[in-house]
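User: Please predict the structure of the protein below. I'd like the answer in structure-token form so I can feed it into my own downstream comparison script.

Assistant: Understood. Taking the following sequence of 495 residues as input:
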Amino acid sequence: MFRVPTPLTTSAWPLGRRLNWVGAFRRLVATRQDDLIEAMQADIAKPRFEGLVGDVAPLLAACAWVEKHGARILKPRRLPGGGVLSTATRGIVTRAPLGRVAIIATWNYPVQLLGIEMVQAIAAGNRVTVKPSENSPRSQTLLLDLALEAGRQTQMPDGWLTRTDASREAGASLLRDNAFDHVVFTGSTSVGRAIAETLAPRLVSSTLELSGRDSAFVLDDADPELAADAIWNGITMNAGQTCMAPRRALVDEKVYAEFVRRLMARAGAARPLPLVNERAAGEIHALALQAHEQGCRSLSGVVEPPVADAQGIRRLIRPMVFADCPRNASLIEGRHFGPLLAVVRVRDLEDALTLHDGVDQVLTTAVFTKDPSRVDAFRERLRSTIVTVNDCLLPTAHASVGLSGHGASGWGVTKGEEGLLAMTRPLYTTTTSPLLRFSMSTVTPAIEQGMAKFVRWWFGGTRVRETPRATTDTRSASTQTQPHEPLPLESSLGR
């Protein structure tokens, strides 16, 4: 039975040496990138170039980013002033690791996603156990071999990085038979919900990166060719098996005909793409048939069944785009994981937003417009963590961009600064000067009355923090109302 080793403190492997491990891991991944790409081809038939730009390169960029910024993000930080009532107290916040972290890996981006989650968890000081996906055992086994080799090069303490086998049974026993302080899972909403239910009785925290059912907005001033090219790339990259890929295009009626014409040329020339297995290809074909029956129009003119690949596995399916979709078509719901797209004609932006409001899983929303400032007016209504303007998918590989769902798309953050901080917990240390320390034992009625008057004056008057307005006021800055010191509560809420 697999057991988690006894916890170690980060003093056994300090931050500088952990960042050295990140560098060693980066160099090994770069050196063995061809082997990793070949392993992904063997696991999930991922094309070589997609393996490079969708998995290896983003992981390498994330490693370099952590090496450059990790020490700054994780270093101790002085707390801002606590207000007049805390003049005798100074505070610092340090970052402590969560402890023992389990990572249950996914298969669709087997090198990028597992690699980044592992790098951030280890750089933050956690001991990590990885359960590879049963669909990508070769690529993730090799990735873990490289991580362990980097550990040997940088004197990683024994047991800091461990792994289970890639079987489905190993995932179930991992959480049942072991105690973890945090669990990271990337995958389907149904499995994520089951994991949350398993962890809830023990109050174990988790990061759940679950699927999205996102929209692409093509506004009335969009470039139809740009939108068609980017959205087509979004639904065909990784054979559409991307949690952030658009499931529907909400296209303003002013550019609808031209957008559909540009997509039709791409759909007509499309070749079959390999999905992860026969079941996945069968589900996509069944949904495409249903879309046709419900009145959606296939832009390629056909609805082709899956065909066999060189190994005889019937998992090759042609990407399909359906236009003129009725509002009640099942395809619009976006509950699929493959190269299908519903194109919906909308009257205006509000009509598009109303349709998008009905989506319960959002991660990344794409907006196409010649005026990016328009997004400011409705960004928050989209509810997604990432909004890409005039592109799909590829901008999310930016090393500083975090990924986070909410609701049915999960919770917690991976990637970027917020993802690194999410692998830690804050520790606050306050130091009080004995000379200025306030003693409750010395309070007299006169002191109490004076303190009450002072608090009423200090906090209840007009001395409040104001955001300067962009006006034509010509008074000098010295004559403006100055903000008061932050309240203790204000300091505790801000990061």
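That's the full token string. The longest helix spans residues 48-74.
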